[in-house]
Amino acid sequence: VPPIPFCCHSTARLRISAVHNTVHTFAIPSCALSMFAMRSSGCLPSAFDSVETIRDEVCRQKRRLFIFLDYDGTLTPIVPHPERAYLPEDTRDILETLCSLCSVSIITGRSIEQIRRFVYFEKLAYAASHGFDIYGPLEDPFRLQPAQRFLSDVSAARATLQSATKGMEGCLVENNPFSVPVHFRNCSPEDALQVQKIVKQVASTCPKLELREGKKVLELRPRFEWNKGEALKWLREHFGVPDEDSFCIFIGDDKTDEDAQKALPPGSIGVVVTDGRLNKRVKKKICN
Fold first, then answer.
1. 3-state secondary structure string, 182-244?
2. Distance CA 73, CA 62 (A)
3. 3-class SS at 251?
4. pLDDT tens, 153-183?
5. From CA 151, how far away is CA 51, in angstroms rounded?
6. Residue 118, SS3 per DSSP
7. Which of 12, 48, 211, 233 is the most exposed place for a label (fewest CB within 10 A)?
């Protein structure tokens, strides 16, 4: 299938750039690539006007539809205070409608307690803590925590970082059992640099944890071959639908979502949400 670029703008004025295939949003070698086109955005045109085209493609496939969604920056805007990233009621209504039509999962860096409290809807699956804590819907209850042996290492790193950043205005060390997100969005420029320095120093003393970077956040998580992509694959396998019988859509906005994009089966739709111009790194991968 010849490549056709795709991007879109939501009513929240977020730009979405999507690629209609396994992993080509991030330029990983794969088979057939098909994308949808909309208004221009650098190497990718805008795409909200192609909703009908996407709908037609979903119907044409005649395969079981899976929708995987990031939370922060995707279902909700990025907010100054992460603890206030509440899900809008109209978005919750849309999720409820989607769950009546197909399988829906939220794959997020949030803890399972926090994401369930924000969404407050039990008919979908959650892959929390970047996939380290997977929780099934009410009609199909299951739980998977593949990195439990790292809990003490994560807890010790959190305590160290809470102590080291104490008194630094605007710094937030989240209480996530499987990772240690350290937010510096609300710090002064000087303190933000100091927070990043502290996190990197602590990371260098934690061989069982790895450092990952997000939007105004650094995060320590288990050094373990597991991420949002592995969680996505595990969920699809759990639902018992082979690649050739599944049609997947993933929507995300951050570097951590690239792992999920790469895990999509052939013929899927991957969507990157941005707040304006495409990140140069992502843009280069897509254009190549």
1. EECCCCCHHHHHHHHHHHHHHHHCCCCEEEEEECCEEEEEECCCCCHHHHHHHHHHHCCCCHH
2. 30
3. strand
4. 999 999 999 999 999 999 999 999 999 999 9
5. 43
6. helix
7. 12
